[in-house]
Amino acid sequence: MGTLLPPRPLPSTVRPPLPATRLLLPEHSRAQLAAPSFSYHQVRLLPPYSYCSELALFLEADLDSVSWARPQTPAPRRAALRPRTSSPDADDAAALMVARAEAGDFARAQSIWAQLLLSSAAPCLAAAAPRLLPAYARLGRFEEVLLAVRELSARDPAQAQDLYPLAVSCLGAAGELALMEDALKEMSRAGLRVDSATGNAFVRHYAASGTVWEMEAAVGRLRKTGLLISADAIRAVASAYVAQREYYRLGEFVRGLGLGRRNAGNLLWNLYLLSFAANFKMKSLQRAFLEMADAGFRPDLTTFNIRAAAFSKMCMFWDLHLTADHMHRDGVAPDLVTHGCFVDAYMERRLARNLSFAFRRLDGAGEPVVATDGIVFEAFGKGGFHATSEAVLEAAGGKRRWTYYSLLGIYLKKQHRRNQIFWNY
Question: Binning pLDDT at 50, 70 and 90, where does residue 90 land?
């Protein structure tokens, strides 16, 4: 039976209920709740306590030794609610990993790599790869370069198009042609496109570290893909031919590319002329020079110096003076190489007293400069006047103004003293 009386008050011994308390979570639990991993089906996560504690140990132990590490600042409370691909601690750990690898500490860098790879902070590894992979290559860890690319590509296939060309460049620059081939095979197996930069880098590395036959096979593979061989790759192939004294193959290579190509300037024609000049085939050299003029290409300084170097070696004074007149008529200023061709030819025939006549046809009062393509020196070498003048200019350090006449005076004095006999009593 109900009652209408008010409820009886509680006795004084009974305590009122406690107010609601705030639940405090551990640090690693808060971090896990604030930034959940959205790729748990692809990434194998480490236990929360293991990842955070070990990463903190790495940062506390090593970040003090890195002067460029960012200071840790407490983030505002709302910033913890924003999704992030990697935490500031992970960015610092990636920077520390790169620093360790560049310093030669491979074991420590590999340990940090393994922790970041198996965590939600793995996206920061792709950003560190352009510096990490070359550091591995410098340490001689070539297998690790390809293994790192495989691991990152397996975790994020979208990064494979950028990572495999980087591996090709690192391995090729180190001369590891077999591993470079493996990287290219994996690219084709994965359906990745080989772009022009990767194909030309492939040719350059074979030209630098492979044999002539391997280089020619690489050039053939590149041409079958329809990609255009770049000027840098052409120079690398030409340098390999010149180093092996394969001048006939150099001429065939240039002719196969097409002498009418305009985007390379006079590079192809100059290499074609060099293939005849280095073998001292003077009639073929003259015929090729006329073909170049008929094709609408204007000779530049390198073109004239290739011919002048051949004429100087053969002591063909009439052709040398015709070359100087042609340069003056076309408005091409001679450089130190041109003057050196005249000086070496006159000194070979002991006609040093007539050098003033030759310098009047050139620019004897001008300031010495070298503007000739370096592949000419690879084929002919540097003459005596050229080498002596460069040594004098380097020793002077730009403290005074030099001319070709002043350099000629020093060179003639050196040659005169070399022919004297000094008796030591």
Answer: confident
Rounded mean pLDDT of the chain?
80
Tokens coding 217 = 């096979």
Q: Per residue in 376-392, is it b (16+ CB within 10 Å) or e — as a string?
A: bbebbebbebbebbbeb
Of residues 3 and 259, more confidence is placed in: 259
Residues 6 or more apart whose CB falls under 8 angstroms from that of 123 comprise 85, 86, 156
Q: Looking at per-residue confidence, does 340 or 30 come out higher?
A: 340
CB 345 within 8 A of CB 315: yes
Report the pLDDT value the prediction gives residue 241, as an integer from 0 to 100: 96
Task: Count CB neighbours of 301 within 10 A.
Answer: 18
φ and ψ of 29, to 5 deg: -70, -40
pLDDT band at 75 (very low <50, low <70, confident <90, very high): very low
Residue 159 has pLDDT above 80, yes or no: yes
* Residue 110, token pair as written in the block: 């590999």
DSSP 237: H
Q: Could you tell me which of 255, 226, 223, 263 has the C-alpha nearest to residue 238?
A: 255
**Rounded mean pLDDT of 372-397?**
91
CA-CA distance, 225 to 423, in Å (whole number)? 70
| Dist CA 272 CA 254 (whole Å) | 6
Region 358-373: mean pLDDT is 88
Torsion angle of C-alpha atoms 123, 127, 131, 134, degrees rounded to 10? 60
- The span from the CA of 158 to the CA of 48, in Å, is 27
Question: For the chain, give me the number of helices (H) and strands (E)?
Answer: 21, 0
Closest CA to 106 of 140, 129, 130, 131: 140
- pLDDT recorded at residue 126: 85
DSSP state of 366: S
Spatial distance between the Cα atoms of 337 and 165, rounded to a whole number of angstroms? 39
Q: What is the CA radius of gyration of the chain?
A: 35
Q: How far is CA 43 from CA 47, 87, 151, in A?
A: 13, 16, 12
| Phi, psi angles (nearest 5°) of residue 355 | -70, -30
Where do the H-state alpha helices sit in 63-195? Answer: 88-102, 106-117, 123-138, 142-155, 160-173, 177-189
Under 8 Å between Cβ of 208 and 174 = no
